[in-house]
Amino acid sequence: MEQRITLVTLRVADVARSRAFYEGLGWKAAAGSQPAFAFFQMGGMGLGLLSADSYEKEIACDAGTVTHGPSMLAHNVRGKAEVDRLVSFALTQGGRLVRAPADQFWGGYSGIYADPDGHYWEIAFNPFWPLAEDGSVTLD
């Protein structure tokens, strides 16, 4: 079976607020986005923002038993300056600083901010994972 993620969906309290945050980062919502959900094209995959009510309907019988903690997503970039720039920019759009950009124990450089719903975004430069021309990560 091929390993692939085509869509990551985040449960959000207010789709309009979260959509505005991501649009403030310069992302463009897909044309099919609606008040209860928004989608963003991210290279070969998508990010979905789904209202809490719609999210609960999607997971049906697990709705009352699953905890809804934040997720951590990562955006790898080509250098330390880009980490600094993207973390700083996210803060101007309403993101909350979780960990300032700094050298990391694993040999890279990264910082973390939280979006309006507390989902963590790590912006990272990893010298051991070169990026392809299209920005995709090369793990091998």
Can you walk me through this structure?
- The chain has 140 residues and is of the alpha/beta class.
- The strands form two sheets. A four-stranded mixed β-sheet has the order 4-7-6-5. It has a three-stranded mixed β-sheet with strand order 1-3-2.
- A hairpin with a 5-residue loop joins strand 6 and strand 7.
- It is globular and about 40 Å long.
- The two termini are 18 Å apart.
- The relative contact order is 0.17.
- The model has no long low-confidence stretch (mean pLDDT 90).
Short description:
The protein is an alpha/beta fold.
Shape: globular
Order of helices and strands: EHEEHEHEEE
Figure out the total of helices: 3
State the total count of DSSP E strands.
7
Helical fraction: 10-25%
| Biggest sheet, spatial arrangement of strands | 4-7-6-5
Calculate Rg over CA atoms.
Answer: 16 Å
Largest sheet: 4 strands, mixed
Mean pLDDT: 90
> Gap between N and C termini, in Å?
18 Å
Low-confidence stretches: none
* Class inferred from helices and paired strands: alpha/beta
Strand content: 25-35%
Task: Summarize the SSE layout with pairings.
Elements: E1 7-12, H1 15-24, E2 37-42, E3 45-51, H2 52-59, E4 72-76, H3 80-92, E5 96-103, E6 109-114, E7 120-125
Parallel strand pairs: 1-3, 4-7
Antiparallel strand pairs: 2-3, 5-6, 6-7
Which short descriptors sum up this protein?
alpha/beta, globular, 140 residues, single chain, 3 helices, three-stranded mixed beta sheet
